[in-house]
Structures are given as structure tokens and as C-alpha cells.
Give the backbone structure.
Amino acid sequence: MKKCICLLAVFLMGCSPGVSSSGSGSGICLSLQEQTLAQLHLPAQQSRTPVVAAWLTADSLSDMLSGATELAFRQAVREELTWLADKGFTDVFVQVRSNGDAYYASRVYPRAAAWTQTFDPLAVLLEENRDTGLHIHAWINPYRCQTVKQMEEVPDTYSTRSWTQAGEDAIVQVSGRWFLNPGDGEAQELILTGAEELLTGYALAGLHIDDYFYPTTEPEFDAAAFGASQSEKLADWRTEQVNQLVAGLYALTHSAGLIFSISPRGDPAASARLLYADPETWCSQPGYCDWILPQLYYGFAHETCGFAEMLELWQGMLRTDQVRLIPGICTYKVGQADSWAGSGRLEWIRERNIPAREAAAVLDAGLEGVAVYSSASTRTLDKAEMEALEQQLYRFTQEQP
């Protein structure tokens, strides 16, 4: 069944996306005509307030929740958020759905396995954030679901479980894990419904998705949906499915007056070829995202994707003032060999202060934001590395006019 989302109704009426049936096919039909965007009164220029963001993973939430009372969880969350604020961070992407599960009160996704308590982890986190004043963004993985074994424990009252039992095209198994089918209308509707309950149920700054899109390039993955579409090129059709969902999430987030952001792979060519993501379009046309945070998790000496070169590449891709480029850097590679870096394999072992130097390069490029992956690995940096990075992070908020 083909699901058609009316963006105008989403924005102007503040309701759930309207759905209509129009025969066989797949995907979400999203109207992005220029006149529609004008009617929706989208902002021509975003706020240029500096952004220093961190990613707080579901693994970190799971660790905080494991065996914890509500009081203990509150204390752990308060400590984490206070530390981030003290180090100069302004925004946090909190991973509240990573594998078809939820760390918040959801009607459409089952609880994360680590969340066995009666309190709502996201609600508690937002309450504890009142004193720190960080901007909290809900970070979701739209398509990835549980492993085959994990899915057997999901109650059949949830769509993902019932679809697996019925052999529906909405969910597909790849290498022992289930994934929502990007080209299936019911799957896309479920993703949008899950996003809507977050955006309307919690006092958030925005919604964030990361770099997981199509899980495979194999034609069999979505052969039925592609055949029904009567499209000629599989790659183009898959890219269109991803863009339709991205535009739908953007529309829902804007209907709530919040920020929609994406952190695609750092190599846009690989992202397009392997995942059917379309960061070039997202960077150059309004209607897809507010912030784009490419994962530039490379050293300066990376043989094929050096940090400086990739930063320049992404700057060249940005062609609209309605999208902000906020490069992502990492701390988890510090002291580790980078097996994908070729001749730069040992750079993170031999060189010091790479994250700090990369943050400085972002500033020198004239950009007004940076994001760090992840909060957990950043907290493990030694004192000298942390002080060097902290000095650069503070420059974003202290040196901006």
C-alpha cells in the first residue's frame, strides 16, 4: 500500500501525517514544491548560535540503567550532563532508539532490554537537565531493529514482531538482524509515528538520525517493492525512498518547531554507493535537514580520507543557508590503530591532541559548530588530551561575535 504524507497538513494543522491509499506501490509521497515551502513559512535563515554537541549512546544509557534505582539513574544522568556542560558542550544527541527499541514511553516500539524499571529514562534525563540547560535532541536509528533472537522476545502486539511472524515485506532479515524496509509504506509510516510521539511527548530541542540507511546492496532485499514501483534503476529508486523518509522526518520536526539533524558517513560517495543516502541533496536543497553533521572520524594522515580534505569537501557541498554544517569528530580512536587509514594507520597512537587539532581546524574554516563522538570515549581521555580539546571547544562559544 502506498502511503502519502501531506506536508501542508502536518505543518498547518499540527496533526499526525495524513495517509491515503492509492493502489499498489511503496514509499511516502512528500510534496516539496517551492510554493509549499513558502506556504509553510519555513525560516530563511537559521540561528547562528554556536553548537558544541556530543553523542550520548544507547550503550551509555544501558550502563546507567543496569540494576539502577531511579535515584541512582538520576545521579548518573546528572553527573553526565553536568560534566558535558562544564566542558563547554551546548547540545547532546541522546540515543533513545538504536535497534527497534525504546528508552522512552513508546506506543509503537518495545522497551529496550536494559530498561526494566518503572520510570521513563528520557523523562528523567530531561528533568535532570533543567539545571544544566543543555539542548537535548532525541537520536534514533530509523531502520535497524533487533537480531533474530532478540525479536523472538518482542511481544506480538508490536508491528515489527507481527510483521516478522507474518512474513510481511515491511521488515527484512539481513545477516541475522531485522531491518525495516525503506521502500515499504507501512514501515515508513511506523518510523514517522515513532518520531511523532517523541516530538510531541517530550520537551526536546530536536530529532537526530545517524548513518544507517539501507543495510545491503543486494537486489533481493526489496525486490517486490522495487518491481511494484515500475522504476527503472534500483539505486535511484532506493535513494528516493531514503530521501522521502528524511523529508518526512524533517517535516514532522519542523511542525513541532524543532531542529532536524543528520550525521551521515564522512565519505559522501561511499554513503551514496553503499547506503543509498543522498547527503549532496541534503546539503544543497532546503526541506531535508537543518543541521548536517558528517562523521569525519579520520586522522589528518588518513591515506584516502584525510580530515582536512574531507572537511573542505563537505564545505563545498553546502549550497543553501538553510542547512548548517557541523562536522563530527571522534575521540574513541585516540591511542588506537586505525585499520582503515592505510599509511596513516598509527597516527592516533603516535600523534597527540588530534581531536583538539581537528576542532581548531573547524574553527579556522569559519564554521560555528562541532560535534564529538562520543561522550563516553571523551570522558576517558587523559588529562592533557582533555584539556587541549576543552580549550578548543570553549573557543566556539567564547570567540563567536
Summary: The CA atoms of residues 243 and 278 lie 7 Å apart. The first strand starts at residue 3 and ends at 5. Residues 234-255 form the longest helix (22 residues).
